[in-house]
Each structure stands twice: as structure tokens, then as C-alpha cells.
Amino acid sequence: AQSVTQLGSHVSVSEGALVLLRCNYSSSVPPYLFWYVQYPNQGLQLLLKYTSAATLVKGINGFEAEFKKSETSFHLTKPSAHMSDAAEYFCAVTRGSSASKIIFGSGTRLSIRP
Amino acid sequence: EPEVTQTPSHQVTQMGQEVILRCVPISNHLYFYWYRQILGQKVEFLVSFYNNEISEKSEIFDDQFSVERPDGSNFTLKIRSTKLEDSAMYFCASSERSGQHYEQYFGPGTRLTVT
């Protein structure tokens, strides 16, 4: 079975500071990993995805994530936080097969302090 | 840019009533999905649908739930007799194909409140 665990339900950083949102995965097969963002009262938007091509994945809005198999991690980072980054972030996983059900983590709410 | 749309944005219903949540997937997409998010909890997969058939469903998707593509554009989720615990945000998604290389595009969601 596959799962993802997000460490920290709420993260608060100052504007301009480093953003680090943690995600660990569990998978018996090579995983395909995603980060989604959900702005208030909006749907889920794909930030980035890892599909085994490169371990460092760059996404939209300056975010990136690194797949580390040895640590079973896929942490999301951004060098300098902006007020507009305030949102809920979900790590997610799916199997590397024709099945495409997405399994989501519990989410991390990111707050940005002025 | 094409997007998935959902109506209504908010639905309030009484326990025991039937509700139909509507979605218009992106026009050239072939795979359709429903997910739900109970307030404060994670997003959970409900069902996937392809070629007028359910491809996969979760244990949440019991006999009270059904999905349908009644015409060439709409994709609906019906809850036959709503319960209080059905209160949640329901997201529709669609993808061009199945598999990890094909992004699922999510709609803005329908907030269902069962009283």
C-alpha cells in the first residue's frame, strides 16, 4: 500500500525566508510523487511532480522538491517566501502503473508573516 | 486555458435527501474522478470513471453513491440518501489519459452541507 506523511500541519515563516514543507512516502513500488497547492476557496493546483526522470524537480512559483530514496522523502522548498504563497499544500503519491488514483497527505497550512 | 468546472459551489441539503453534484471536465479528457475532503481532513479518492464504466472505487464509495456521464460534457456524482457525515468538499478531476504522466486537473469543488 502507498501512503504519504506530511510532518507539521501548520508552518509559519517570515516573508523572504526559506520555505520547507516535509513529506515522507511509503511505497512498495517505485512511487510517483506530487505536490499540490490549494488556495482559499479554490481547487487543487499541481505545483510539481516526480516521475523518476530527475531527482530534483522544479515547479511553478519558484518551488522545487527533491526525491531522496534513501530517506523516502520528497520535501518541498522555496528559497524566499512571498505573501502570496500562503495556502494549504498537499503531498501526494500514485502508483507507477496504469492506475492513477492519487493518495494525498493530510496537508500543511503555510502562513507567511510580514 | 481549459478548466474543470463544478456546480453548484455550495449545496445545502437535509439528511436523507438525494443530491447530484455536477462537473464539466476538460473537453478532450477521457478519465474522470471524484475526490472528497471532509473539513480539516485529507483529500480522499472516491471513484474513477472511463468509457462509461467505473474503473476503480474506494471503500467510501458504497451503494449510496453513483456516477454518471449523462451526455458528452457532464459528469455527475449522486448521493442517494445523504448522511451528516457526507458533509464535505467534493472535487471533480479529469485527465487526458490514465497514468502518472497525465496530470489530473481539479475543479474548484462543491461544498456539500448536510443538516
Q: Could you walk me through the main structural features you see in this protein, from its secondary elements to its overall organization?
A:
The complex is a heterodimer of chains A (114) and B (115). With 114 residues, chain A is mostly beta strands. In chain A, 0% of the residues lie in helices and 56% in strands. Chain A is built from no helices and eleven strands. Chain A has strands spanning 3-7, 10-14, 19-26, 31-38, 44-50, 56-58, 64-68, 73-78, 87-95, 103-104, 108-113. Chain A is globular and about 40 Å long. Chain B is mostly beta strands and 115 residues long. Helices cover 0% and strands 50% of the residues of chain B. Chain B has no helices and eleven strands. The termini of chain B are far apart. The chains are: A mainly beta (114), B mainly beta (115). At the A-B interface, strand 5, strand 9 and strand 10 of A face strand 4, strand 5 and strand 9 of B.
Q: Total strand count of chain A, please? A: 11
Major sheet attributes of chain A: 6 strands, mixed
Order of helices and strands of chain A: EEEEEEEEEEE
The best one-word shape of chain A is globular
Strand content of chain B: over 45%
Count of separate DSSP helical elements of chain B: 0
Question: Oligomerization state of this entry?
Answer: heterodimer
Helix content of chain B: under 10%
What is the residue-mean pLDDT of chain A, rounded to a whole number?
Answer: 90
N- to C-terminal separation of chain A?
A: 41 Å
Short description:
The complex is a heterodimer of chains A (114) and B (115). By secondary structure, chain A is an all-beta fold. Chain A is built from no helices and eleven strands.
